[in-house]
Known about the structure:
By secondary structure, this protein is α/β, with parallel strands linked by helices.
Amino acid sequence: MIDIHSHIVFGVDDGSESLEETLKMLEEAKNAGVETVFATPHFMDHVLNPDKTFDNFRVVLNKASELGVDIKLGFEVVLHPLLLRGIEIAKRHTMNKTEYILVEFPFNSSFEFSKRVLAQIRQKGLIPIVAHPERIETFIKKRGLIRELKESGCLIQVNAGSITGYYGEKARLIARKIVEEKTADFIASDAHKTGYYNRYLESYHIITGWTDEDYAQRLFKINARKLIGI
C-alpha cells in the first residue's frame, strides 16, 4: 500500500512529537503492509519552518530506509487567504516535486473562497488532491460539493479513520457514499501519532465490503503510483 498523507516528520506540526514516536509509526506502517509513506507536514504560509522540516525529514528518510519503508516528501497545504498573495508558493510544496498538491479546506472558511484559491492553483498547472472533505462541515452539510470539486479537476482523498468511524458517524456515512459512488481517488492514514496504521489496515478490509477489489486496490495503491509517479 502507498499512504499519501501523514504527519510522520517529528517536531514540525501537530503530528509526531519525537523521533522515537516516528520510528514506532514507521514500524506500524510496515506491519500494516505499507510500502511507501508520504510525509506531508502542514503548510500554512508563514507557519512552516522550512529548515527544520527538511532537516527532520532527512533524519526520517534515513531511519525509514533502515526499516525498509520508502519515504517521499509532500505537504498538506491549507487553503489560507495569504496563499492568494503568493500562489507561486504552492508550486514549491507539491507531492514529491510533481504537479500534484495535497490541499486542506480550513474547517471554518467559506467554500466559495477556497474554490477561488483552488482555481488559481489549477491555473498554475497543478492538480489539487483535496484532503478528507468528509470531515469538513461544509461538505457534511452539502455532500454534492464534493462531486463539484471532482468535476472541476480535483482529486479526492478520504481518511482511513473516517472509514472506521474514528471521526464519528457523519464522517463515516459521507466517506462510505464517496467510496460507493467511486468519487474517491485515495484512502490515506493522515497519521499524526501511533495507532493510525491499525485503522488504515482496518479501513482496507471495510472498503472491500463496500466496493470491488479492483477499486480498493486503486484507492490504496494503484492511483498513487500512476498519479504521483511512484
